[in-house]
User: Which sequence fits this backbone?
């Protein structure tokens, strides 16, 4: 789990850099890059730059959160299909599926509306996501060990999602993105507290 935790930090740092890079790029002459415009000194150009940067962050948020949510649903399904999962873990799994499946559908719709690709650089072992080996270990766990692994992994997974949600809240200008990101942060922080109490 230490390796996955290290990648969580790296992925969030990478997201933070990607969300701001377009606003900071400069050409060889010191002027702003293609998304700059500060050299003109006009409010309208500055506003356009800010809007483009915010939308870039919104797109990346959706592209990364969709596979992140999908893995949470996969983990929830493991709990719901396991004879070893406690009733408390099964209840949490149902709650996670009920919250995150509609959010996936909404984010896929946003990407279509923004004419943005659905693909992302989110991969196993980053942003709190479990590696393939982690998922196989969880699937093979039995008895009380299943609950312990599931809760430990889902806490780390949720922490990655909360970090991404908090990052986009600092950059987005889109009310719907703000609403979802805040809901993710609030809901998953609450679930983290519940899961920690069960360990």
Assistant:
């Amino acid at each position: 789990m230490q390796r996955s935790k290290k990648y969580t930090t790296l992925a969030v740092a990478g997201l933070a850099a990607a969300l701001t890079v377009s606003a900071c790029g400069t050409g060889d002459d010191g002027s702003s890059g293609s998304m700059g415009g500060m050299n003109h000194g006009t409010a309208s150009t500055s506003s356009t730059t800010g809007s483009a940067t915010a939308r870039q962050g919104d797109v990346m948020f959706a592209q990364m959160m969709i596979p992140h949510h999908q893995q949470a649903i996969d983990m929830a399904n493991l709990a719901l299909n396991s004879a070893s999962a406690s009733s408390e873990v099964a209840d949490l799994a149902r709650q996670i599926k009920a919250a995150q499946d509609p959010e996936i559908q909404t984010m896929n719709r946003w990407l279509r509306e923004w004419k943005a690709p659905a693909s992302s650089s989110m991969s196993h072992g980053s942003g709190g996501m479990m590696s393939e080996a982690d998922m196989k270990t969880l699937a093979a766990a039995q008895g009380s060990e299943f609950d312990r692994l599931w809760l430990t992994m889902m806490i780390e997974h949720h922490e990655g999602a909360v970090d991404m949600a908090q990052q986009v809240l600092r950059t987005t200008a889109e009310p719907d993105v703000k609403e979802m990101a805040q809901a993710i942060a609030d809901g998953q922080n609450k679930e983290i507290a519940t899961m920690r109490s069960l360990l």
Notes: The mean pLDDT is 80. The chain has one domain: 50-198. Residues 63 and 119 are 6 Å apart (CA to CA). The radius of gyration is 19 Å.
